[in-house]
Each structure stands twice: as C-alpha cells, then as structure tokens.
Amino acid sequence: MPRAWMAAALTLVLSPTAFAQDCSVNEILEHVYGPDHKADLELSTCKVWPARPGITLVAAGLNRDGDYQVGSEDLELLLVDTATSRVIARRLEEDRLGYDAIQVGKLTFDTAPYKLQDNVLAFGLRIGRHNNSGGYPFSQTSLTLYIAGKSGPEPVLEDLLVESFSGETDAVCQGRYEESAATLALGSATSHGLHSLAVTQRISTYHEVMGTSDTCMPEDEKTAQHRYTLTFDGTRYPIPAKLQALTP
C-alpha cells in the first residue's frame, strides 16, 4: 500500500489551506449552467484563489457519453467573480476526463505560489486517476499549471507526474511495488521571460512481506532520486517522458 511519505509529497512550500475548499461548487454551477445542469459533481471542484481572493477557480466535469465503466467527460475551467459567480474567463478541454479501466478519482486546485515571473502567477490543477484491480493496483496524480491568457486560462505545464503507485500481488503481504513522488520549485534561470522549474523525483521499489504482529512490512527497499530542469520554450514547459502522467 502507498506509504505516508509518498502520499504527503507536495509542490513548493504550501500553506495549510493550500488545498482547502471555501466555496459551493454546486451553487456556482447552477449560476453558470442553470439549475438543470448536468455537470458531474463528483468531478467538479472550486476554490477561492488566495492570491486573488476576488476570483474563484472552478473545474467542472461535463458529461458527454458513456456509462460508469467506460466513457468521456469534458473539463471546463472557469474563473468566476467570487462575489457574484459571474464568469470572467473560461477554457474547455474536450475529453480531458476520459475513463475506462483507469478511472478519474479527484480534481484538486493547487494554489501554491507559482510566481513564474513578477507579474505572472500560475495556478495548478491536480487530477487523480486509479484502477480497481486488487492484483495490479495503480494510481497517479498529475499536475497542470495554468496562467491567464488572452482568451482564458492557458496551460504552460501539462500533466506532470507528481505521485504514482503501482504493483503486482497475488496474496496478502506478497507483492512488488513501485512508488514515486515529485516536488517542484522555481529555478533562478529564465527563458522567454519565465523562470525554469526544478523537479526532484524520488522513486522507491520494494517487496512486501508479513512482519511481526501480522502486519505487512516493506523489504529489500531501493530508492533513487532524479533531478530535472524544465525550461519554458515560449509556449510550454516540455516534460521528459519519465515525468509524463498517463492521459486519456
């Protein structure tokens, strides 16, 4: 099972309320789409942006087609006026929340201080995905950073893998597992006007065996740490293949 030090991996130095919810997503969706909206409340979330409290960030999962096993949903990002829920800007990403054997678990806004330039502040959206296989467990969390563009939020970093867990087991306390966690920090160098991003990824592989008191214990654990520098190319921060999260 994933351990606490992996599950706690965060981006930059976060305040205790960096992931707190402080708005009613259903009330906002009713205001934007109408009382009979068909947005997926389980895949919708909102958060008042601490750095700009007059703006509330909203991610809405919009039903398209499929059933509970296989299907696809669009993702619409909304920046709304905190006081009135009036839409300030929006971005539609079609099929962003597609699912089959890998399900979309949770969307969370990450409002750590991603100050890419003196006047450029980004916000993040984390998307969790997982399967339901007991023998081959899998989960991951990706991070996408957005900045304010001329026509709405624009991604500058897409689907960075910040947490992952996978394994193979055929019995209780008999399995092989791999976990990874990545942290992100602003670099000092700049390119095309934006700071570079320094990523540190820690990967752990281990076997699990039955220990004392009938508890599962890791054995033969091996860890490795890798560092990457992501440089803005004028449009995006290209991500190495080893740091790319699974996408629909």
Structural key phrases:
11 strands; mainly beta; single chain; 4-stranded antiparallel β-sheet; 248 residues
Mean pLDDT: 87
Low-confidence stretches: 1-20
Number of helices: 2
Tell me, what's the shape? globular
Descriptive overview:
This is Secreted protein. Residues 1-20 form the signal peptide. Keywords: Signal. This protein has one domain (4-243). It has 248 residues and is mainly β. A seven-stranded antiparallel β-sheet has the order 5-6-7-8-9-10-11, with no helix packed on it. Strands 1-2-3-4 form a four-stranded antiparallel β-sheet, with helices on one face. It is built from two helices and eleven strands, in the order H-H-E-E-E-E-E-E-E-E-E-E-E.
Short description:
By secondary structure, the protein is mainly beta. The chain has two helices and eleven strands; from the N terminus they run ααβββββββββββ.
Write the layout of secondary structure elements.
Elements: H1 4-7, H2 25-33, E1 39-48, E2 55-66, E3 71-81, E4 87-93, E5 103-117, E6 120-130, E7 138-149, E8 152-171, E9 174-191, E10 194-210, E11 216-230
Antiparallel strand pairs: 1-2, 2-3, 3-4, 5-6, 6-7, 7-8, 8-9, 9-10, 10-11
Keywords: Signal
Signal peptide: 1-20
Protein name: Secreted protein
